[in-house]
Write a structure and sequence with these properties.
By secondary structure, this protein is mostly helical. Helix content is 72%, strand content 0%. It is built from 13 helices and no strands.
Length: 317
C-alpha cells in the first residue's frame, strides 16, 4: 500500500485546518499596526497576482468577456466586503471570536438557498439549527449574560455578521455568474480584483495618510507575509488539491474546525481571553454549523458540489 497519497491528504487537511485557523490571529497582529483595508488589499493583491500568474504560466485560459463581470461581482462581495469587514472588525474583536462569528456562513447560505433560490426546503430542523447558532452569537454579544468575560464589540460583531452574509450571497451567486472554468484562474482573478477594490476602498476611507511602512514592526510584516503565502497561496492550493480527491462534504469540515483552531491559537499565542462565555457561544455556533452541514449532507452529491463549494478560500481566512 502506497502511503504517499495518505500522507499528502493528511498534510492538506492539516493545512486547511491549522493554517487557515491561525490566519485569524495573523490578521489581528497585522491590523494593530497597519490600516485594515490597506493590509487586506496588500494581502489579496499580492496573492491574487501570484496565483493568477502561476495559472497563466501553466497554460490556463484567462477570463474573457462577461467572465470578468462575474469575477468582479464575486471579488466585491467576497474580498472587499467580507474580508474588508473582517480585517476592520479584528481591530475591535478578538481573532478567535471573529472566526466563530464567520462560522455562521453556512447558516446564511442555507437561508439564501431556502428563501432566494428555493433549492432547499426551510425545514423545522434547519430552523432549530439556525436558532441554536443565533443563541451562540447572542451569548457572545449580550453584556448581561452571566457567563463571565467581556461581551464583544457590537460594531465589530455586526461587521462580521454582514461579512458572513456577503460571502454567503457570493457563494450562492457562483451558480448564476459566468466564471472561468479553471478554479485557479477564477480565484486568482477574484483575489487580484478584490485587492484592487480594497486599495480603492482604503483610499476612500483615508487610510493612506495613516500608513507609515517604516513604523511597522517586523512582526506585523511577517504576519502579512504569512497571510499571503501560507493563508492564500499554500492554503488554497491544498484546498483545490483536496477538492479533486475528497468529497466536498469532507473537505467542508474546515468550516467548524477553523474556529476551534482560531480560538485556541488566539488564546495560547495571542493572549486572548478564554472565558465561559466564549466556550459556550463557540460551542453553540459550531453545533449549529454541524447540524446545518449534516442536513445539507442529505442532498445529492452534485447539489453539494454546487452549494457547498465556495469560489475561493471559503471561510478560511
Amino acid at each position: 500500500m502506497d502511503k504517499r497519497p495518505l500522507l499528502k491528504t493528511l498534510l492538506a487537511f492539516g493545512i486547511i485546518y491549522i493554517v487557515w485557523g491561525s490566519t485569524f490571529l495573523a490578521i489581528r497582529v497585522g491590523v494593530q499596526e497597519m490600516p485594515p483595508l490597506l493590509m487586506a488589499a496588500m494581502r489579496f493583491g499580492a496573492a491574487g497576482l501570484l496565483l493568477f500568474a502561476w495559472a497563466r504560466m501553466r497554460g490556463e485560459k484567462p477570463p474573457v468577456g462577461r467572465q470578468w463581470l462575474g469575477v468582479t461581482v464575486l471579488a466585491a462581495l467576497m474580498f472587499m466586503c467580507d474580508y474588508g469587514l473582517l480585517f476592520w472588525a479584528e481591530t475591535r474583536v478578538p481573532s478567535g471570536i471573529a472566526a466563530v462569528l464567520l462560522a455562521t456562513i453556512p447558516a446564511f447560505i442555507a437561508i439564501a438557498e431556502a428563501l432566494l433560490l428555493r433549492t432547499r426546503k426551510f425545514t423545522v430542523g434547519l430552523g432549530v439549527s439556525l436558532l441554536v447558532g443565533l443563541a451562540g452569537v447572542a451569548i457572545l454579544m449580550v453584556k448581561s449574560v452571566g457567563l463571565g468575560g467581556e461581551a464583544v464589540s457590537g460594531a465589530g460583531a455586526a461587521a462580521l455578521i454582514v461579512a458572513a452574509a456577503s460571502w454567503s450571497v457570493a457563494t450562492v451567486l457562483t451558480r448564476r455568474l459566468p466564471l472561468p472554468e479553471s478554479k485557479m484562474v477564477s480565484s486568482g482573478a477574484q483575489m487580484l480584483v478584490g485587492g484592487l477594490l480594497l486599495f480603492g476602498a482604503a483610499t476612500v476611507f483615508g487610510e493612506w495618510p495613516r500608513f507609515h511602512p517604516a513604523a511597522v514592526s517586523m512582526h506585523a510584516w511577517e504576519a502579512l507575509i504569512y497571510l499571503i503565502v501560507a493563508g492564500s497561496i499554500v492554503g488554497y492550493t491544498a484546498y483545490l488539491w483536496l477538492l479533486h480527491r475528497e468529497s466536498p462534504t469532507r473537505v467542508g469540515t474546515y468550516a467548524y474546525v477553523n474556529p476551534v483552531v482560531a480560538v485556541a491559537v488566539g488564546h495560547w499565542l495571542g493572549g486572548e481571553e478564554l472565558a465561559t462565555r466564549t466556550i459556550v457561544g463557540t460551542a453553540l455556533v459550531l453545533a449549529s454549523v454541524l447540524a446545518i452541514m449534516l442536513v445539507q449532507g442529505k442532498a445529492s452529491e452534485p447539489e453539494r458540489e454546487l452549494s457547498g463549494e465556495p469560489a475561493s478560500e471559503e471561510i478560511g481566512s
